[in-house]
Design brief:
This protein has 370 residues and is an alpha/beta fold. The chain contains eleven helices and eight strands. An eight-stranded mixed β-sheet has the order 4-3-5-2-6-7-1-8, with helices on both faces. Helix 5 links the parallel strand 3 and strand 4.
């Protein structure tokens, strides 16, 4: 059956727009990522002489790359509305960020909504599935010092040992402040059934919109990056040592991502832009790290409580289209997150100019040789 003329036009326009977006992003990647790598390769002498300045420059360029990814969604009308605590006042302090995980678009959403949070993006370390290492952005994350973790019982203990070693080597030496992880250990659609089965066997809460989190990486991060107190909780450490070493983690930021009608956004949607303009809702709740236990049983309970709260937040959102107000308040106050279009244009222009410059230099060098 032939499509009506109007529907055929809409389909044709959508396909043209998707192909155009894909071509632009492909070229964008081809100029931006190699440029990032070449700049850092040429700056290796600076890394030997002044590593702090080197990683400052690397962080700035890393933020620009993430801003390019954010711009792809922004141009398609994929925006973010923020709820709950305001994280900007703690953007210069150290924090661990725990996020629910529904689809590949979660990472893109975080890349967007953290752009206006001070130095967070350039000083951030990500914990991601090892498969991400083999994507177009994997090399950038590898250089930046992100950690790629392999899932599964067979790898768990070894991966946690590698994580601690990675944090010891790279977290403070590269002046990182925030570390982001997805404690569920996988996408909601893949883990929900096994999580619910485990919960039933162990008399734990039945969760639908999130899954029961895994403890390992969270515990390693807390024990490695936070000063320990005698009662097993975490705190600010000895004031007398503040000059000698970093303060350590000060906050845990609990982030809950919600999509309208519970339809997660994946990276394909972000690239091709075939979904109509969509507002993704991000809820923040901040906890002082000194109130977080580190012993296995207590931390497990604490982490489970956070995801039970996420379940309630998401259930309320899917029923009403809004997150509930904080305790003691009559109504919630959502904040529309915005990006500076002029700044995004400058960054994209710099990427294409850099790509043109490197290609010209390579062509001239080739002609000089031959």
């Amino acid at each position: 059956m032939a499509l009506p003329l109007e529907d055929a036009r809409k389909l044709g326009w959508m396909m043209l727009k998707s192909v155009t977006r894909f071509v632009f992003m492909f070229i964008n990647n081809c100029v931006a990522i190699p440029s990032y790598c070449i700049y850092l390769l040429l700056l290796q002498p600076l890394r030997l002489m002044d590593s702090r300045t080197f990683w400052y420059i690397e962080g700035v360029m890393f933020k620009w790359l993430l801003a390019m990814v954010a711009s792809w969604g922004w141009i398609a009308g994929y925006t973010v509305t923020e709820w709950g605590d305001d994280v900007r006042p703690i953007s210069e302090e150290e924090a661990m960020v725990i996020v629910n995980h529904q689809a590949t678009g979660d990472v893109c959403t975080l890349m967007m909504c953290l752009q206006d949070k001070g130095t967070v993006v350039r000083k951030m370390m990500w914990l991601m599935d090892h498969v991400f290492k083999y994507t177009n952005f994997g090399l950038v994350s590898l250089i930046h010092g992100d950690f790629f973790i392999r899932q599964g019982k067979a790898h768990r203990d070894k991966q946690l040992f590698y994580l601690k070693d990675h944090l010891d080597k790279f977290y403070y030496s590269r002046d990182r402040k925030w570390i982001v992880l997805f404690p569920e250990g996988g996408f909601l659609r893949k883990r929900r059934e096994s999580s619910q089965s485990f919960a039933k066997k162990n008399n734990l809460p039945h969760l639908t919109h999130v899954t029961l989190p895994r403890l390992g990486a969270t515990q390693v991060i807390l024990k490695t990056l936070s000063p320990q107190q005698e009662n097993g909780s975490l705190g600010a450490g000895d004031a007398n040592l503040a000059e000698a070493k970093p303060r350590g983690l000060q906050w845990v930021v609990d982030v809950t991502i919600a999509y309208p009608k519970a339809r997660p956004m994946d990276i394909q949607t972000w690239i091709f832009g075939y979904r109509p303009p969509t507002v993704t809702h991000v809820h923040y709740r901040i906890y002082p790290v000194k109130d977080v236990p580190v012993e296995t049983e207590q931390l497990t309970d604490w982490l489970y409580q956070r995801f039970v709260e996420k379940e309630h937040l998401l259930a309320h959102f899917y029923q009403t289209g809004a997150f509930p107000p904080p305790k003691g308040q009559q109504q919630a106050n959502p904040r529309e997150m915005t990006l500076d279009i002029a700044w995004l244009l400058v960054i994209q222009s710099l990427a294409f100019l850099s790509g043109y410059m490197w290609v010209s230099l390579l062509c001239n060098f080739y002609c000089w040789l031959f």
